[in-house]
UniProtKB/TrEMBL annotation:
Localization of this protein: Membrane
Name listed for the protein in its UniProt record: Amino acid permease
Keywords: Membrane, Transmembrane, Transmembrane helix
Transmembrane regions listed in the UniProt entry: 16-40, 46-68, 89-116, 128-145, 157-182, 194-215, 235-258, 289-314, 335-354, 411-429
One Gene Ontology cellular component annotation held by this UniProt entry: membrane
Main location: membrane
Organism domain of life: Bacteria
Length: 444
């Protein structure tokens, strides 16, 4: 390792399509393989409408991120935006929630990959679940440690496999549903006409909104994107459009083939609802390809999380909210080596104590909190620098507040508790650093 590149900027190695794959890799995973089923359990067939509404809100939030990434193209995403355009404590808490939630997501993705792989190979020994997960964390950490080029190639490969499996499911599913007259797909808006029905619908929207957060991962690596002013908006728009198209396609064939109730039941009992959909077609090849896609989707989440969180730690180290050694780059200036190692170790530890039932209970709260900070930051950009109308930022801000008050109270308890822990860490760490610096000042 080398200290030559401490505090220097990471090399720009990502074109817009590679950046878009980074975004897709972070959303085409649990969101499409699990969250749609959870939304269906909450609001039935109206989950389709919730998916569309969440996608529109995701568009607005993504435009805010695109605006901020172009105006301030450095590693750290929401952490940097909050610091630059709002206050240090808002920037820190946004980054802190991202750091904790995404590390937990990565550990769950590693366990999910292990579970899918073991099941696909027909192995019944659950004792190897954690060891296989740890091996996957080690391999992915090595790939990210090798720099952006190796991370980019690996991400593109696993995302293409996942998308191919989903396109196969959608194509076969459309033929199946048309041949059966879409008999399982029924719509009823009676539920949202009541207060509780409306709240349930908005909870589904909030849940699905979390699944449209690929743009946030792109903003984390904006320092490494070539020609950010043109590339970042293209990558973010491509990511959100592709994500919405895949989500709607999968939802349609899922609800049309087995119905929203059975889909929700499969999510609750097996956590693999798309397998139930694929099995209903009676074509083994579709089921096998979908199983492969589910496996690679877990890897893509793990890879992009190690990549994004390590860049966040780099930014936090630069501003003094984390130890300075996390800012050291390799000789080539392509990766923050110590930050990558730190993230890999943190995920590996969580794998040891976690299980595949981790549900990221504060994930929805965290996504809405980050959307609030992103929107508020975007509103601070002057008209001369603005790429998109100001009403988009206002709409995103208001919608995130409304949805936040529709989620369960315990999301708030967990989220606010973690924010408090983060603020205590920041205060304590900075006090320690200040005391250390005072001791180093030579006496006259």
């Amino acid at each position: 390792m080398s200290n030559e590149n401490t505090h220097s900027q990471l090399k720009r190695e990502l074109d817009w399509i590679s950046a878009a794959f980074m975004g897709l890799a972070s959303v085409i995973g649990a969101g499409i393989f699990i969250s749609i089923g959870v939304a269906a359990e909450i609001s039935g067939s109206m989950a389709l409408l919730a998916l569309v509404v969440a996608g529109l809100l995701g568009f607005c939030n993504s435009f805010n991120l695109a605006q901020l990434s172009v105006s301030h193209p450095v590693s750290g995403g929401i952490y940097e935006y909050g610091y630059k355009y709002l206050t240090p404590w808002l920037g820190f808490t946004g980054g802190w929630i991202y750091l904790l939630s995404k590390t937990a997501v990565a550990a769950t993705a590693a366990l999910g990959f292990s579970g899918y792989l073991i099941n696909n190979l027909g192995i019944v020994d659950e004792g190897i679940l954690v060891p296989v997960a740890e091996i996957s964390v080690f391999i992915i950490t090595l790939i990210v440690f090798g720099g952006m080029r190796s991370s980019k190639v690996s991400t593109i490969v696993v995302v293409l496999i996942t998308i191919t499996s989903l396109l196969c499911l959608i194509t076969v599913g459309l033929f199946f549903c048309f041949s059966h007259g879409w008999e399982k797909l029924t719509f009823s808006s009676s539920g949202i006409n009541s207060y509780h029905g409306t709240i349930s619908f908005l909870q589904s929207v909030a849940l699905m909104f979390v699944s449209y957060n690929g743009a946030a991962r792109i903003s984390m690596v904006s320092e490494e994107i070539v020609d950010p002013k043109k590339s970042i908006p293209r990558a973010i728009i491509f990511t959100i459009v592709t994500t919405m198209a895949l989500y709607i396609g999968v939802s349609l064939v899922s609800f049309g083939s087995i119905g929203p109730e059975a889909f929700a039941s499969a999510t609750r009992t097996t956590a693999a609802p798309l397998k139930a959909v694929a099995d209903s077609f009676g074509i083994p090849l579709v089921s096998n390809l979908l199983a492969l896609g589910a496996t690679t989707s877990m890897l893509s989440i793990l890879l992009t999380t190690v990549l994004g969180v390590s860049r966040l730690l780099l930014a936090m180290g630069r501003r003094g909210d984390m130890p300075k050694f996390l800012t050291k780059l390799n000789t080539a200036g392509t990766t923050p080596e110590f930050a990558v190692i730190f993230v890999g170790i943190a995920i590996a530890v969580l794998v040891l104590v976690g299980d595949v039932k981790i549900t990221w209970s504060f994930g929805t709260f965290g996504a809405l909190y980050r959307s609030f900070i992103t929107s508020l930051s975007a509103l601070q950009i002057g008209d001369q620098e603005r790429l998109y109308p100001k009403w988009i930022s206002w709409f995103s801000l208001c919608s995130s507040v409304v949805l936040a008050f529709c989620i369960e109270w315990y999301y708030w308890v967990i989220g606010l508790g973690l924010i408090l822990v983060g603020l205590v860490w920041r205060f304590t760490f900075r006090q320690f650093q200040n005391a250390k610096n005072i001791q180093l000042i030579p006496k006259e």
